Hints:
- By secondary structure, the protein is mainly alpha-helical.
- The chain has helices at residues 3-21, 28-37, 58-81, 94-109, 115-127, 132-160.
- Helices cover 69% and strands 0% of the residues.
- α1 (3-21) runs antiparallel to α2 and α4 (94-109) runs parallel beside α6.
Amino acid sequence: MKNNSLSKSFTRYAAIQAIYSLNYSKNLPEIQTYLINNNAFLIDLDVKVNFDKTKINKIFLIKILEVIQNNQEKIDELISSNLNNGWNIDRLPIVQLAILRVAISEMINFPKTSVGIIISEYLMLTESFFTEKECAFTNAILENIYKNLNDKESSESRTKNT
């Protein structure tokens, strides 16, 4: 992987950690500062990737977290609307919900980034926490949401041009 790819991978993981941590501390600026400045912040994944903490992309991290903070209701609605009947967002494991929120935030904030890259990165992270079944679930949700976002964007673009 290129250094920029590693930096973004690490930053994605840090963003997931931040959103997960919000379940226990509602102070996002404090969590963000900890992740950016604390040398004790470590990553232990089941994948063969070495992250260099000094290579965190602070701007990328802050943008992802801002999108989640400013659009969490929209993001959660996108997740909820793609769950099967009888399921609600509260039944999702906290880590999986954090992964979905961060991935969707990136789709919203960086629409020109390849969906294949976004989904494969978050699936790699999902694999370090869950089984194949949960990975397939995450994949399906992210693909559906990506299609919804693109359909909505295309519709809005067509409306503006007429």
